[in-house]
Amino acid sequence: MGGAVFLLSLSPQYPCGGAQPPLPPLAERTADGFLVPQPGHTFQFPRDHGSHPGFKVEWWYVTGHLFEVGTKERFGFQATFFRRAGAPPGEAVKKSGAFRSDQLFLFHAALLEVRSGNFLHTERLSRAGWDASSAEDTLDVQLNGNRLFLDPAQPETFHLDTRIRNDARLQLTLRPSKPLVVFGEDGLSRKGDSPEAASWYLTFPRLAAEGQLQFGGRTLRIGGEAWMDHEISSSQLTQEQTGWDWAGIQFEDGREIMVYRLRRKDGSTDPASALFWVDAAGKTVRFGADAFRWEGAAQWRSPRSGASYPLPVRLSVPDPSSGQNADFVLEPLGADQELGDSGSGIPYWEGACRVKSNGKVVGSAYVELTGYAGSLNRALK
Amino acid sequence: MKEAPAQVVVKQEGTRASKSAVDQGRARVVFMLLRQCTWRHWRHQPRRTALLVLLVSIGVSVFLSMRLANRAAVASFTQFAEVLTQQSDAVLTPRAGLLSETVLDQLKAARQSEEGLSGLEEIIPIVETSAALPRSRTDREQGIGSRTSFTLLGVDLISLQNLATSKNLDRSWFSQGSNGEAAASQEGGFWKLLERPTAIFCAQSLAEEEGLQVGSKWSLIMGERTVEFELAGIIPSRPDQPTAPKNLLVMDLPALQVLSGKEGRLDRVEFLFNRSTRTTPAQAERTLAVLSRTLEAFGNVRSPESRQAAAEVMTRGFRLNLTILSLIALLVGLYLIFQALDAAVVKRKTEIGILRAMGVTAAEVRWAWLWEALLLGCAGGAAGVLGGWALAQGTVRAVSQTVNTLYYASNTTAAALHLDEAMGAMLLAITSSLVAGWLPAKRAAATLPAQLWAQGTGGSAVLKTPTQRGWLWGFGLAAAAAVLAFCPPLILEGGTPFSLAGYASAFLGILGVGVLAGETLPSAGWLAARLGKLSPARRLANSHLRQPSSRHRWAVAGLVCAIAMTGGMAILVGSFESSVSGWIRLALQSDIYITSDANQNASANSHMAASTWKGITAEAAVADWDGLLITRVELPGGPVRLNGTDMAFNKRHEPLLWLDPPRTDAVFSADQNEDLCVVSESFTARFRIYREGTVRVPTPTGERTLKVAGVYTDYGDDKGIILVDRRHMQRWFETDQLSTLALVLQPGTDAEAFRAQTRAAYPGLAVYTNAHLRAEVMRIFQQTFAITYALEGIGVLVALAGLGTTLASVLAERRAELTTLRALGMSHAEIAQVAAWEGALLSVVGTLGGLLASAGLGALLVFVINKQTFGWTLQLALPLPPLLFLALLIPASGALVAWTAGRWGADLPVDRAD
Question: What ipTM was estimated for this complex?
């Protein structure tokens, strides 16, 4: 879910979720001919880490918390590669050469220097071709020199190389500390009662990250923990939904939470919203929209877009390990982590947070808040 | 001793104080002289003053307008990024043909590995082609280059969004139309724009002119086809952004690749650096160097400055000639100021004598005269700047049209005035006036108080030049001119030859003939006195010429100068015309010539598809044919045209005018000529490669080393042409397209009917019969000299005005004599006759001298300056009509102007101060 702003804004038919069960059977294809993810899919890797051009939208999303080796200076980072198909398979558009018209790619990246609050971010948009591509047989997605790929020589070792304009370059090696999680039932994450509203949602909830960061004229050796999503779908938002809130939380006890709350125009939480606990072994427990509560503890107003974001976030969830409700506060490590105010024209907040419980830091998180600056349907104006 | 230094200081300060007081006193006197004398004279003679200001302003106007027009004509946009962002840091262009898209993969890889490319912000691949409005039914016979043509750029519209983001530009490429914003975000709306193969963006001004709205259909000629485009929107721009030129059209890059047959190819890649790189010259140079090294195999990476410089080098010879011609009017104007101020010295010598007797110093008088010259210069300069700007708006179109026709697409229609150019023009006017006023000021300062009693003795006598010295000067200047004519050209940066010695020779030669013509005046007067029985008026006029003043000599020299320039240029143009006529008679032997109708300027290079040219040449009416493939390749010394032709056709029909013919027939056989070429004369002049030399030609399939088998004349391109066999060139460039077709029809075939039939079958093709193409070539030729004629005309007009003012000055100096003549019973008409006869004789002498100088200058222009500048060998031809016209016009006009001056002089009262 994390970082899907641009693609969803290009696809403003995302289905409205009703009560989760019972859901109608899925269609095989969308009305415009794209494939719809189906349950019971047998994932094959590394192929399914790669691109799925038969589906309309897809993204690879990496966030994390990094520390300079030695000084422990802290950084937060985000790098997201989006793919969006322009024409379903079989349609006669240019699908080869340096300038293809069948796929678009978007790249967002951000870096937060926690000590100073200095927040760097960039966006790049490219058509498939010389400047952007994604492999179909393994993970190798790139755009304008930014690249995320699976090391062909080392199983389950990923490399991320990203630049934020001329200001920073982050080169990381990512190795999963926990196995891959497939969210949803029978490998399928339903997003609503539409027969097209489903995704394959694959996540490495915790990866060990190491590498180097060129920043401020220095090259720093860094290490830390990352989170990586890969989501594939052809589903779309409806006009009734104004945005969503999402968080990926890594607790110090080795567990994680992935939560998304779809917001409706009247401010209510869409029933399609869900929260997943991931235990130390990688097993997931799902809670529906009525089982958790997400609210803003205060408001932060962006000086650029004017949008008010509910920050910090107060999250109340049942804890499967204790059977009790647990209250967490997701506190931004820097207030101004708003992106998209210039490039796509869709401002949203996506930032590094510390997670507190009863005043004590219990983990780290990345939080995404969208739809707080008006319509999402302003892309590529 | 201790006080000594203080005393020195006091003395020095005292000296400074007294010097300052003297300076102030002198300034007061000079100001008083200006106010009491100069201003009074100006006020009493407003027309004379206005005429002087006008003359300076005409000179400055013509010079400035040429400068503005020249700059504007070569400053047409070349980089797309500049249009949107006013920034372009580097551009990659192929040395030959097109760039393969693989260059982008190379760039991508280099960007990952080369730290030296970290300053690269945007990479903008470009496909470019030309298009033109289709001919309408009413303009079927419009000439080449006369229809509106467009530069059609293919740009990746998706990546433009990144440019818009980083440069904070208008982003509304995808949201135009009746439903505006919604259009972009509607499902499929954005994608449909990319999928539309003929969606096009244009400038707001063009949309208004053509009445286009988003969604409008619009037909243009591309290649040999008429393509119906659909207006997708206006090229977005904010008020603070540069406005897109009217002849620019933008499409999505892959769509234009398909439309123009350039799939997988690019014309160039533009680069933008990030801010820190751009603002640090060393860093920008380093990035440029890394780019050049990385892309060495693909082509040349240049900064926009060097691209602009290359464009300027291309037209430098042409522009330099215009600039020099534009100086004629200024030079003649300068001479007239000298004349007027010199005459004023004579007229005001009594007044100066009184002032000197009253204690005004010589220095103060000199300063007052110099100030007068300076004020004239300021007034003339200011008027000239305004006039120059106005004139430039007209001339820029003409200059632009020539650049468009001969060199590359120029889209300029207006010339802006920059502050530095305005200041430069003012400086030129002031400097010219001061130079012209220097000698009169010196003479005024030399006036003694005793001159007070010298009134009426003919002040001009003091200006008489010793005749022997005049002859010596005249012959000396002519000899120096003759020596300079044999000097080689100066080679400017970029390899452009500049005939500095040639121009100096022309200047000294004209000056020499002018001086000599002045020295012949007594002989002319003597000769005229022997033309039968003469009236008293004529006898009087003859006597004046037998004892000419320096003013008479200057008037003759001015006429010689103007006539020599005009006549010399007429000889050059006539020689050119005669040579070109002969050349096209030989070169254009086919019956029909066919090219894309989109080729409306020199840089347009639309081609015909193989199916088209094969279809045409397969017609039964076609007896023989040649197909020309034209492209431009980049040699180390600059760009040059590479033409592929059927060399065997050239052997059969012999359209080439050989200077150094091939020694064997190998070059005419496709089996033997793969490593042979022939080159044009301009090529040998520019690259110093002659017959038997070798030239290394870059092609997309590798460099070819070609031996020069022969040298031929081609007046169609002054940068040089390499001619190779078409079959090899098509293989080297991996194309089966052709640029033009030349058809020889079966005997008895009606060429006009064939033309009509071909045009009907291929509406996007321009089809010319032999006669029509010859006429077009000559029309374009005449068009390129249009400005030259205008500049010459201005020069002659200024010279005639000079003649009028000279005679008026002479008459004013002789007012005592005129009074005597009137007292003796001579009527106003008779006095006017004296002046008219005197003027006519001066004009005849000036015209004869001018025509003589014309012949010398014409030969110099044809054999030295033209040869050194353009590398063309021309046959000298004397165009009698324009020379006869000059020979009759100048004396007649001179007599008329002099008669008018005589009528004015006859009314001069003897006791009038001026």
Answer: 0.86
